[in-house]
Amino acid sequence: SHLGKLRRGHWGPAHGGRAVVIVDDLQLPAVQTSSGAQPPVELLRHLMERKGWYDLSDHTFRYLDRIQMVVCVGVVAHEDRVTPRFLRHFNAIAVCEASSRSLEHIFCAIFDGLFGDGRFPAEVQALGSKIVQLSISLHRRVVAALLPTPSKPHYTFTQRDLFRLFSSIVVGRKTTAEVISRRELIRLWAHEALRVFSGMHA
């Protein structure tokens, strides 16, 4: 819906702009045992190499102009999970995971902004650093204990799950207008931690 017809056979963003296509978890499509291909990745490779796709309704080729593609691959993915024929079109940038100190600084700031507005008791505000430290410790233990299996390599935990945990707490806080107590905050954290971390291996 964000691409318009530029001229005959050519589609792209209007007004001379560029469209950025972001593909996350590129390693997830299963590899076919017979051919070793990943059909979704091959479809993207066709776009990169041929600059477009065929329209099956009238069997004409439609060029997609001014398209920039950014892909993300999980750090736990094996190199053979994504075909080199597709990866050769990209410049690889490796991003290290944030340290525990950086994560603690980020999430403490989020917690203070959420519960430090003066409406909450001091005992609730004092839980911020403890909940953050406990969450980081729990995440590290889960990563070490719940490893992916050969049949399900996508069962992996990353720092994204830690962000999901705190995002859920933020949503839970915003959906209620009541001032929650220390016990209710602990129960909210325990519920969201169980939902985030146990859901992957359910």
What is the oligomeric state here? single chain
What is the helix content? 40-55%
User: What is the strand tally?
Assistant: 6
Largest sheet: 4 strands, mixed
Structural class: alpha/beta
Please count the helical segments. 7
Strand order of the largest sheet: 1-2-5-4
Please indicate the percent range of residues in DSSP E strands (runs of 2 or more): 5-15%
What does the average pLDDT come to?
83
Give the uncertain stretches in residue-range form.
none
Name the helix and strand elements from N-terminus to C-terminus, one letter apiece. Answer: EEEHEEEHHHHHH
Terminal Cα span: 36 Å
Gross morphology is elongated
Can you walk me through this structure?
The protein is elongated and about 65 Å long. It has 7 helices and 6 strands; from the N terminus they run E-E-E-H-E-E-E-H-H-H-H-H-H. The longest helix has 19 residues, at 127-145. The strands form 2 sheets. A 4-stranded mixed beta sheet has the order 1-2-5-4. A two-stranded parallel ribbon has the order 3-6. 44% of the residues lie in helices and 13% in strands. With 202 residues, it is α/β, with parallel strands linked by helices. The mean pLDDT is 83. A hairpin with a 4-residue loop joins strand 4 (52-55) and strand 5 (60-64). It has helices at residues 39-50, 84-87, 100-115, 122-125, 127-145, 159-174, 182-198, and strands at residues 4-7, 10-12, 19-23, 52-55, 60-64, 67-71. Helix 3 packs across helix 5.
